[in-house]
Amino acid sequence: MPKKDPANLPTRISAEPTKRFFVEMFTRDIDLRDAILDLLDNCIDGIVRSKSFNRKHKRPYAGHWAKISLDENHFSIADNCGGISRELAEKSAFMLGRPIDFEEQEEEPTGPTVGVYGIGMKRAIFKMGRQAEVTSQTDGEAFQVTIPETWFREKDNWFLPLTPLRNPLRHSGTTIKVERLEPAIQKQFGDTKEFCDGLAGVISQTYSMIIEKGFSVSVNGPEVRPVPLILHTVDLYKYKRGIAPYLFRANIDGVDVDLKVGFYRPSADEDELEQEATSTHSVHDAGWTIVCNDRVVVYRDKTRLTGWGEATVPSYHAQFNSIAGIVHFRCNDASKLPLTTTKRGIEAGSEVYLQVKEKMREGLKKFTSFTNRFKVNPEYKSRLFKAAHTRPLGIIDDMSLKVKWKTDPRIKGGRIFTPSLPELDKSDNKKWIKFTKDVEEIRKVSDFLFEKPDAEPGKVGEASFNRVYREAVKE
Q1: Which residues 6+ apart lie within 8 Å of 177 measured at CB?
Q2: Is residue 331 part of a domain?
Q3: Do residues 288 and 336 touch, judged by C-beta distance below 8 A?
Q4: pLDDT confidence tier of residue 475, bands split at 50, 70 and 90
Q5: Is residue 278 in a domain?
Q6: 258 and 394 share a domain?
Q7: Which of 136, 160, 200, 246 is the most exposed, fewest CB within 10 Å of its CB?
């Protein structure tokens, strides 16, 4: 039997990542503000995992807060959201991803969190700086984990020092301090007011529902105010007909779905569409907002992602600037949510999302058709909207208990409420008169009729017609 040549035997070679490469690639594709939002997500997940959290309560986050402080030399976030246990710190929290053996030991999910991959805190710290301290206190223990600047240069050292402490904080919670900021981060934090204003704006959108439900967030002192999610509707307790939202609810593969779409304010008239730049109808507030476990992940979208411009739904344009929709996905198992890894987008190919998207398009068509019919009769449309009022989503949820739901024929267990939007009065014989004229000619006629050259073109046309009509009926 021939002998094996030692030169042909396999040799083990290293395939380990270098720490520098890993850290740089780990943080490259996430925006700084998104990294900070990951830290806020951890605060909120801490509340949700607590025994006192009750999702059915109207303000389940009340009493909890997170305080962000930053300048060109440091970043810190402190909260009173329960803290990190020492066991979690030793086995998972500071690892770059969740170890399989620890996941297998974990209990079933106890609340609607958004953390899945176990990378948010580390990625945010590494994104910002090269020195950090994480101090945590729970009801029974406290500790501090230090990430020294030298750790990033030590090739083979992947361990971090954990020091037990005795009541370092006045409350159960976590404080993260990041120093030795990266030059690019120092530059962004350098204009502190501009960055803080922008961060507060993103927080007010992303956590609007959570803040309305009691959570408090401050950035360099001032408390962030939420952007309210609202819709326009008549009283639904005794609903028969009128302006109201389209509603859909279902449980799809363990994910609770709550969809609402309608008008968030009166639809625009033809004159307002011509003068969109000065219209009181804000294009920014229209479109679809998608929420996963109370966290806004898509805000006011007007693209094919949310059904605009596909399957007989018209593409978004100014005529639809009063239409808004909200879809809320809830599940105790965050991995079932149609959520991207950055938690700032929707996985468009998710089976759950594809089914819900059909209902989103169905609801959109109801209201795009309405705006087409009623722009020819602004007086009648105005009377209809005066009978309705702006309502927060919680009030609409309460009123929806009294409406007549129908079984969805396509989605098992799904229920639909389709509003009876008024039709245009058939006896109405009004018609649009449309024409275009040179801007300078319109300005001259405006100056002649109103003694000012900048009246709205629609009003100039209407006044011109009325003047000629009065002359015509005299004959």
Answers
A1: 74, 75, 76, 132, 133, 135
A2: yes
A3: no
A4: low
A5: yes
A6: yes
A7: 160
pLDDT for 373: 72
Residue the block writes with tokens 């509003």: 419
**152 token code pair:** 């990033």
Type of residue at 212: E
- Contact indicator for 302, 316 with CB cutoff of 8 Å: yes
Q: Per the structure, how many domains does the chain have? A: 3
Distances (CA, A) of 428 to 242, 380, 424, 425, 461: 19, 10, 8, 5, 21
Per-residue CA distances from 272 to 233, 275, 277, 462 (Å):
22, 5, 9, 14
Domain with 173 in it? 19-219
Is residue 8 domain-resident? no
Average pLDDT over residues 83-88: 90
Q: What's the number of CA atoms in the CB half-sphere (13 Å) around residue 303?
A: 7
The DSSP bridge pattern shows strands 406-407 and 246-252 to be unpaired
| Strand (E) or helix (H) holding 177 | strand 173-181
Residue 190 lies in a domain: yes
- In a shared domain, residues 466 and 367: no
Do 173 and 260 lie in one domain? The reply is: no
Distance, in Å, from the CA atom of 358 to the CA atom of 427, rounded to the nearest integer, reads: 35
**Which one is predicted more confidently, 38 or 14?**
38
Flag whether pLDDT at 75 surpasses 80.
yes
Confidence category of residue 222, pLDDT binned at 50, 70, 90: very high
pLDDT of residue 432: 65
Q: What residues have CB less than 8 Å from 281, skipping those under 6 apart?
A: 265, 266, 267, 268, 272, 321, 322
Q: Which two tokens stand for residue 179?
A: 């120093």
